[in-house]
Write a structure and sequence with these properties.
The chain is mainly α. The protein is built from five helices and no strands.
């Protein structure tokens, strides 16, 4: 059983990386900038997608090479932590128009601002189910989540 993907498989990750670099260069000026809620929503979607990719790699690799799988699992946890912080930043950002800042707990009850504004909360809740199945609360709150095998 081969550890690597077939040579004909397309690798789109470099394109996603280039797109992020291009986006940053074009859309984030050198001066001060307040990140919009739309930008935070897009970043959250990207992190959740990356979390899913790392989860798939960790699950498959961990069966064949446990040490590598542990490292990928740790990376998956760190990406989830980043997504959680971006979700919190979204709720700290003012609403367009009113400038009001909603409570983070508001997303627990659904869509307090109406669709599509809080699709980030729906995405976050769906992702949290996977996180709860694959990660312990101690892993999520530990300063270092990596396992070390000798």
């Amino acid at each position: 059983m081969s550890r690597t993907a077939s040579p004909t498989a397309q690798d789109f990750v470099p394109f996603a990386t280039a797109a992020l670099d291009f986006h940053r260069a074009l859309n984030v000026p050198g001066g001060p900038l307040v990140t919009t809620r739309a930008e935070l929503d897009a970043l959250h979607a990207h992190l959740v997608s990356l979390h899913g990719l790392l989860d798939a790699h960790a699950a498959r690799t961990g069966r064949l090479v446990p040490i590598e799988g542990d490292q990928l699992s740790t990376a998956r946890t760190r990406i989830w932590q980043a997504a959680d912080h971006v979700h919190a930043a979204y709720h700290a950002a003012p609403r367009p128009g009113s400038g009001e800042v909603p409570d983070r707990e508001a997303c627990q009850v659904g869509l307090p601002e109406g669709a599509p504004e809080l699709t980030i909360c729906q995405r976050h809740q769906r992702s949290a189910h996977l996180v709860r199945r694959r990660t312990t609360p101690a892993d999520l709150h530990a300063p270092f989540t990596g396992l070390v095998r000798h």
